[in-house]
Amino acid sequence: MLQKLTVKNYAIIDHLEVDFSGSLNIITGETGAGKSILMGALSLILGERADPGVLFDKTGKCVVEGAFKVKKALVAEFFQQHELDLEEVLIIRREVSASGKSRAFVNDTPVNLSQLAELSGYLVDLHQQFDTLELEKSDFQRRVVDALVNKPEALQQYQQSWQRYSQVQRKLKQLQDQRDSANKELDYNKFLLDELEDAAFAENEIENLDAELQVLTHAEEIKNTLNKACFQLKEDEQPILQQLKQLQSGLQAMAGYQQELPALVARLQSSYLELQDVADEIERINDGIQYDAARIEQVNERTATGYRLLKKHGVHTTAELLNIKADLSTRVESALNLDEQLLELEKEQASLQQALEKLAAGITTLRMQQVPPFEKKVNALLAQVGMPNARLKVSITPGALQANGQDNIEFLFDANKSEQFAPIRKVASGGELSRLMLCIKSLVAQSVALPTLIFDEIDTGISGEAARQVGVILKDLAHAHQVICITHQPQIAGKADAHYFVYKETRSGKVTTGVRLLTTEERINAIAQMLSGEKPTAAALENAREMVGS
């Protein structure tokens, strides 16, 4: 509940503090005194956007602060999700500077407006879950019926199944799109894959073939060079190897006379052995090189195929070509397997849909059970608040499966016993909507723990006994909920547990708004003025005294 509201520098409010009771709080005052301004200030700490034009003093900043006493269990998940400190009393503060910059705090921790708006839904029923405009919306109407059913576990079970069903539907749609796209490309991808598979290149084959072709096309030149080298090493008139052998022998003969010669003899021996090995390798390589016109033609054809495929796929190596082949194989295989995956998903979807329809039918039954008593109670309350000819009818018709069941729920209204029921949004006036909302709230409050309820001039268009009955309903609501109501009706004001009077006064040449909690005698006088004018008659005072005492 809202324990205290502090407003500084907002509109025509310089500074005021209001301590609210936990029951029925009534706010009265002359038109233009600032009652709705007070609600505008309150809306700032509930996440509404700020307008710097509302600053009372343009040189300072506007500060609105609310102290709320809450049950921790109701907001624990929100505070845990946003990593905020949770205390039994929440201090929500909003600051607006003259430049338009706005800051919000929860227990002195900065929060953004979306977080503030989300939190306000747990704290105050003002322009949120159950406001008059919402009454015209089908989703709100469904939530009203579900609140009366008051079996959240049934809806939760359905919603969990719906989430899985929705996931499968999305996956199914995704796979269907993939299949359609894959089918368009399948034939072409399969053609490319068949072409690569027919070519059947091995790892590094194109590079190896290119090297082989270089050898084959220059075989004669290579053999001539190798033969010449081998001849000079081994078979010339004075072969290089023979000359080295002779040099080694000559130096060996002198090795006993010069101490450095044995090392040179050893080096010549090493060189001789190395050159002899080179000559043997040249002979081996030479023997392996043969000019083969048929092989040249074969390698030419193979490399031509390879280079054509490299160019076609825009790559440069055999390894890249093999990667493309592997990718094409995966894509073709995936496309061929999609039908099997789709079949499995379609089976799962059908099974989930069957289970959902069963759960939805159970929810429909629960809702249908609540409709007759709900219509009866609402219509009785409508008569009580001065609309004896008005009737509400709840239409529940089957529809497609959706997040909250398969029911289309529509509140139909007939203001004149014409039996011509039509959707509320088409036929109900503003005053009728306000009173209808009050009736619905009073019934919903018996099933659901609503937050602080705020009614801004819900008495529009009524007076006398109807206004008194509105006061009775508000008083009943206040037994289990904090209710704050702005009213012009003395019959409603008389039901207050705490009566606040909004007034204007002049301070330092400026008109400003003030609020004070009235004593019993002040209440009687204020209500008497509402009944008969600024100077109430004795009869008005007596009537007011009776209203306050009843």
From TrEMBL:
May be involved in recombinational repair of damaged DNA. The lineage of its organism: Bacteria, Pseudomonadati, Bacteroidota, Chitinophagia, Chitinophagales. SUPFAM superfamilies: P-loop containing nucleoside triphosphate hydrolases. The keyword Nucleotide-binding applies. GO terms for biological process: DNA recombination; DNA repair; SOS response. This is DNA repair protein RecN. Residues 2-506 form the RecF/RecN/SMC N-terminal domain. Residues 123-219, 335-362 form a coiled coil. NCBIfam families: recN (TIGR00634). GO terms for molecular function: ATP binding. Keywords: ATP-binding, Coiled coil, DNA damage, DNA repair, Nucleotide-binding. Belongs to the RecN family.
